[in-house]
Amino acid sequence: MDFDAIVIGSGMSGGMAAKELTERGLKVLVLERGRNIERGKKEDQTDWMQPWDLPNGGNVPEDELAADYPVQGQCYALSSATKHLFVKDSEHPYKTPEGKPFSWIRGYHLGGRSIMWGRQTYRLSQMDFEANARDGIGSDWPIRYDDIAPWYSHVENFIGVSGSREGLPQLPDGDFLPPFALNDGELAFKAAVESRFPGRKVIPGRAANLSEARPHHQELGRAPCKVRSLCERGCMFGAYHSSLNSSLPAAERTGNLTVITDAIVHSIVYDPASGKATGVQVVDAKTKAGSTYKAKVIFCCASTIGTAQILLNSASEAMPRGLANGSDMVGRNLMDHLYQMLTVATFDNLPDTYYFGRRPTGFYIPRYRNLNGNDEPFLRGYGFQGGFSRKGGASAALAQAGIGEELKARARELGPWTLFLAGFGEVLPNPENRVTLDKSETDQWGIPLVNISCAFGENERKMTETVQADGRAMAEAAGGTVTASISGGSPPGLGIHEMGTACMGKDPGKSVLNKWNQTHEVPNLFITDGAAMASSGCQNPSLTYMALSARAADTAASMLSEGVL
Amino acid sequence: MLLAGAGAALSACDAIGLADEDSPFRYSAEDMALITALADRIVPKGDSVGALDAGVPAAFEGLMANWASEETRAQMAGVLAALGALGGGFAALPAGEQSRLLADYDAAALAPAPQGEEELFSPPSAKDADYQRFKQIIVLLFYVSEPALTHELAYTHMPGRWDPSIPVTPETRPEGGAGSF
Questions:
Q1: Quick one: CATH architecture of A2-45+104-119+241-335+431-455+498-561?
Q2: Where's the Glucose-methanol-choline oxidoreductase C-terminal domain (chain A) (predicted)?
């Protein structure tokens, strides 16, 4: 069966592309390399588990963790309740050079990492889209903020984003649902930071959780957030956006969607006579049998590294360096965000109040460095995610020596307000940070392994120092005592914001995609996942991937109807 | 009381994961008596619930069978041997004597011993890291259990609303949940 469009990947980008294409009447095939999972199915989503239901108290058996999850185990979200949503590193190997680790966190199942994502949802700004041109670094984005703004609104409205309108040019407002309000610790922190550091703002974290469900959310079976903060296990209420909760059901109801799971895309077929892609070659994950699917348009949304792998593995006589890789930019400019820059502080000067519920977000401090030019020892900037909480329980019981009633009494006590502050910094595009195919080793499906060579540079090192100094300064200005300041030096990848391996650009000689996310060389091939990013900003990027996907799908549908493709 | 306690114990450790009857790893009756005494001293029932109500000894055995590596089992065996020797045979001592001996041991073993950069979410490094880990497992098994989360701490699986500010009263308890061993 031939399709109008094939979407490779069912995650954040693929789900949105499928929704938008099917809603425009296209017959769409979604190919997902992982297994099928279902919303609300007990084995697939474990949000029903009470803490005491968690196998091994939530901990993955030690031998299994070491053997199967040495990389995935670095992710905060991996537990005995979620391990089935992460790949086994032992089954899905990749290579890195000696001394240059890269943590590639993955989930191979329907919906991909949209099931376990952190749901922080922020727009890039005009400043971000101008950054590469201004700094003479990387590929100049072929779009500016105004080009994508309507698509940000479109996606926000569909997925549902809680947040507050702040009027900040570096973090444009969107079409928000009511925010999850700051607690008393955070309000005091906000007052201190905003008065002591003009230009800095402490705002409710913007999250793709339904603080209220509007009619179009309810039509898809989505209900308001129950404030459980169990999101990485899935949500039986569909209260956060994921492909499983929103985009794929929306695509399905059009009657135009076909999904095939366990379908690993080996390569994209290119016809030099027409200059177009004609289909994709697929290996069945279970049987390893090969098959080919054809379509008029192909959307590659296999995730940043997966997309690069497919393009490079689609080399042909006509395109020996890889599909759509005349620029040699496929696989290059791999970026992530600076991550694990943590400040923890306790406070004894805050109101003796508490809160109820486990809000699915915290606060956010939007970027405030280099807003009006470059006046720092580094380029670009960073933001902070954080929150205030009051601990107790086991952590208080174990904080010092003591047994018996003394230990229990300590655990029952509400602890001091504690600040957790985590910086997220922009990483510059660097063509030497790249994904290539290994020449000697293939995976069990006959596809060359990827080699990931990526390291942060001097700009990132300088930025990290300032992030940590700022974190401490803000905590102390608010009256806190810093108990930990950890610049963990986490490897690239662990921010789980990898992007950039098929960048958009104006110059076909220096980029892979044009302003419509269309490859410069193969007009019916679109790439709308993180690979498309020309720069990383410091904002969590999923919203931008989805907006680009929706925008490109609209363009592709128009081009098809006009006979351009 | 005994029946209620046994019922709670079954529900708690069944969820954590009991050691199967034919599991290659099971503790001897003597070891279980020691683990039971230690868990009861560390988290006694008092006027509420304690480790035995939560089924912690059986859950500890299940954890060693289903979660622990050989290295961790050996580490715990060393801790149990040391604790079992206290007072010439810890398990057979009166409860008061057990508490006194264990409190002294606990204070000495958990004396701070900074070892460079600390783990962010772990207790501070202590002189006896093996004992510290044993105690951590016992305590976490208790505080992840239903009896602890419904009697000693607070846990609402489905809060349904976010209230950013509520007054603290004498009845207020910190929110509990799962933790890492």
A1: 3-Layer(bba) Sandwich (3.50)
A2: 429-548
Residues of the domain holding B104: 2-152
Say which range, A349-363, B17-31, B45-59, has the weakest mean pLDDT. B17-31
Does residue B80 belong to any structural domain of this protein? yes
Between the CA atoms of A519, A520, A521 and A522, what dihedral angle is there, to the nearest 10 degrees? 40
How are the residues of chain A apportioned to helix, strand and coil, as percentages rounded to the nearest 5? 25, 20, 50
Interface of A with B in 32-71 (CB under 8 A): 50-63, 66
Q: Which of A232, A408, A412, A420 to mutate to test the interface with B (most CBs of B within 10 A)?
A: A408
| Nearest-by-CA chain B residue for A180 | B162
Bridge partner residues of B166 (DSSP): A354
pLDDT at A2: 82
The band of A117, judged by pLDDT with boundaries at 50, 70 and 90, is: very high
Residue B145 lies in a domain: yes
- Structural domain total, chain B: 1
Q: Which helix (H) or strand (E) holds A267?
A: strand A263-271
Kindly report the backbone phi and psi dihedral angles of residue B59, in degrees, each rounded to the nearest multiple of 5, phi listed first.
-65, -35
CB A429 within 8 A of CB A139: yes
Q: Each residue of A154-181: pLDDT tens digit?
A: 999 999 999 999 999 999 999 899 999 9
Within the 78-97 window of chain A, which residues sit less than 8 Å (CB to CB) from chain B? 79
Provide the pLDDT for residue A152.
98
* Contact state of A407 with B118 under an 8 Å Cβ cutoff: no
* Chain A residues close to B43, C-beta within 8 Å: 403-404, 407-408
Q: Do B153 and B174 meet the contact criterion of CB atoms below 8 Å apart?
A: yes
Does some domain include residue B25?
Answer: yes
Residues in a beta bridge with A341: A423, A487
The nearest CA of chain A is from the CA of B180 a distance in Å of 6
Pairwise CB contact (< 8 Å): A184 & B165: yes
B120/A397 touch (CB, cutoff 8 Å), yes or no: no
- Which of A56, A184, A394 is opposite residue B67, by nearest beta carbon? A56
Residue B87 domain-assigned (yes or no): yes
CA A500 to chain centre: 13
Contact B179 A57 (CB under 8 A): yes
Instruction: Round to whole Å and give the CA distance between A268 and A310.
Output: 7
SS3 string of A28-85? EEEECCCECCCCCCCCCCCCCCCHHHCHHHHCCCHHHHHHHCCCHHHCCCCCCCCHHH
Nearest-by-Cβ selection for A391 from B99, B141, B174: B174
Identify the H or E element spanning A395. helix A393-397
Domain ranges of chain A: 2-45+104-119+241-335+431-455+498-561, 177-206+338-425+457-487
* Contacts A–B by Cβ distance under 8 A: 198
The predicted complex's ipTM stands at 0.93
| Separation of alpha carbons A241 and A253, rounded Å | 17
Alpha-carbon Rg of chain B, whole angstroms? 17
Contact A416, A345 (CB under 8 A): no
* Residue-wise pLDDT tens digits, B115-174: 665 566 677 789 999 999 999 999 999 999 999 999 999 999 999 999 999 999 999 999
Is A229 part of the contact surface with chain B (CB cutoff 8 Å)?
no
